[in-house]
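Note to self: keep these together.
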Amino acid sequence: MSSQKPDITLYTSGTPNGQKASITLEELGVPYKVENIQISKNVQKEEWFLRINPNGRIPAIVDRTPSADGQKRNKRIFESGALMLYLCERYDKDHKLCYEYDTDEYWEVMEWLIWMQSGLGPMQGQANHFYRYAPEKIEYGINRYQTETKRLYQVLEDRLQEQKTNVKRSSGDSGPWIVGDKMTIADLANFAWINWAEWAGIDVAPFKLVKDWLDRINSRPAIQRGLDVPEPFEMKKKMQTKEGEEEYAKMHSNWVMKGQKEDAEKHQ
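Structure:
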């Protein structure tokens, strides 16, 4: 970690991508301030925020931590994967959540992080949309994206089985993990989405190693602190009753469809 006291502001909301950022910060023990970006009110599309992330999405950070020689900095980082990499590169000198550059494990973390960014996240996001938000229940869309998400869960299940078989673990190690013998940002990035599996209408239970991995990560105090940023994580509690599930779905569906309508009108 830099010798300078970190001065980081996290701009986020309680979504899988937003939680990637906050759980990484919490696991690294890096202090940060939080700005709650109310995406239901389209705050992420306001001009001031577009100067931080021109794509108008959360999460993003601004790092004002002075450089080692005391020079002022005002570094923006947007896109959750880039943000996780930045935090590890700058604030994880002991390689708690990553591996030393150019080792085999370093590149494997990159592979599984990009796999999540380009596959699991987008596919489960589409499953969320067709299953929860679309004004019409289109069975083709639901089946297409739920099936692809389950296929990706099986890829991860197979990876964890490979790790369980081939990676020698020290006494007390709670693996298997996606890469090597410890939890890394590859695990955190994938966890942040799979932890929302039921929201996409997917049952994790058939993927036994994935379920165990999910529970192990959820049991960590830093993870629970990060999930409650910028406000308490209520999805799982709401899902315990039909009424709570419907209320949560309606609340989120309203702003999702409103945002989609505004984008459609703007980009005709």
